[in-house]
Design a protein that fits this description.
- The chain is mostly helical.
- The protein folds into 3 domains: 27-94, Serine Threonine Protein Phosphatase 5, Tetratricopeptide repeat (Alpha Horseshoe); 120-208, Alpha Horseshoe (Serine Threonine Protein Phosphatase 5, Tetratricopeptide repeat), CATH 1.25.40.10; 209-303, Alpha Horseshoe (Serine Threonine Protein Phosphatase 5, Tetratricopeptide repeat).
- Helix content is 78%, strand content 0%.
- Helix 3 packs antiparallel against helix 4 (81-94) and helix 16 crosses helix 18.
- It is globular.
- The two termini are 51 Å apart.
- 34% of the residues are buried.
Length: 303
């Protein structure tokens, strides 16, 4: 009887939560429609406030894109091009399939601006802004290009320049992260002579080859910096290292998964280690670990 009452209470509470979510979602949609009506009526100041309220309430991806698109129209109409571009970026981030209808696309102000925000156009704009030293706007356009979708080599170029921007601002961790993403997109990526000679990002990029990434990852593992270690070990695998080194990278990734109680991922990494080098063994201290020791032995015995 007690279990039945508990189950009934649980279902009632779950139903109430879903009903509350439905009410909020409906209110957000109604607010969005009101903001669009105000925009069509030319009351742009009130419309902007209403659209912002709808966004705060929580809209679907398409609803969010619609709100940001019309906020872009409002900014463009008022001659605020930077804010206009920013709202278009947000619209495309919410729904990359966002398009302007025929009447909107023909607008003499926001039409051309929106057309420059395709992936390739955003990349081109971001690179130009980078060369001009406008790093804040460059970073936005480069990230916009990545979000909108470009080829692997273009994506690598965008991440590379984002790395440069982070390095220039002394954000080494983010710089390394962007270089990792660049190399994941295009493992053959290289810096040109001028870029490679830079005193900050040049050495960082050179440290991102497979063996260097592995060495950094193992050192970070020993220091207990597991999050960064896992990233560097995966980079080493992605960039390519000899089979024994790859097995060592997978083995240490397995240790980290096991330590975080992710047994399935731990087993998967051990399997990859043994696939790369079937002779892989655990050292005495490693083999005695109460979590990963038995898991490794069971996988080794099954081969």
């Amino acid at each position: 009887m007690g279990r039945a009452l508990f189950l009934l209470l649980f279902l009632v509470l779950a139903g109430c939560a879903q009903f509350d979510q439905l009410v909020v979602a409906t209110k957000a949609r109604v607010t969005l429609v009101e903001g669009l009506r105000q925009f069509d009526a030319g009351d742009h100041v009130t419309s902007a406030k209403t659209l912002a309220s709808a966004l705060e309430m929580g809209l679907s991806d398409k609803g969010r894109a619609t709100a940001h698109k019309h906020l872009a129209f409002i900014h463009c109409t008022a001659g605020r091009e930077r804010q206009c571009r920013e709202e278009f970026r947000k619209a495309l981030a919410a729904d990359p399939a966002t398009r302007l209808d025929a009447a909107e696309a023909g607008h003499p102000v926001w039409g051309p601006i929106f057309r420059t925000l395709s992936g390739s156009a955003a990349l081109e704009a971001g690179l130009k802004q980078y060369e001009s030293g406008d790093y804040a706007e460059s970073a936005k356009n480069l990230q916009g290009a990545i979000d909108l979708g470009v080829s692997d080599k273009q994506r690598a170029n965008a991440h590379k320049h984002l790395a440069f921007i982070h390095c220039t601002a002394s954000r080494e961790r983010q710089c390394r992260e962007e270089f990792r993403k660049a190399l994941a997109a295009d493992p053959a990526l290289q810096l040109d002579a001028a870029e490679a000679g830079h005193p900050v990002w040049g050495p960082i990029f050179r440290s991102m080859n497979g063996p260097s990434a592995l060495s950094a990852g193992l050192k970070q593992y020993e220091n207990g910096n597991y999050e960064e270690s896992a990233k560097n070990l995966q980079v080493a695998i992605d960039l390519g290292v000899p089979e024994k080194l790859r097995a060592n990278a997978h083995k240490h990734l397995a240790f980290m998964h096991c330590s975080s109680n992710r047994e399935r991922q731990c087993r998967d990494e051990f399997r990859k280690a043994l696939a790369a080098d079937p002779s892989t063994q655990l050292e005495e201290a490693e083999a005695g670990h109460p979590v990963w020791g038995p898991i490794f032995r069971s996988l080794k015995a099954a081969r």
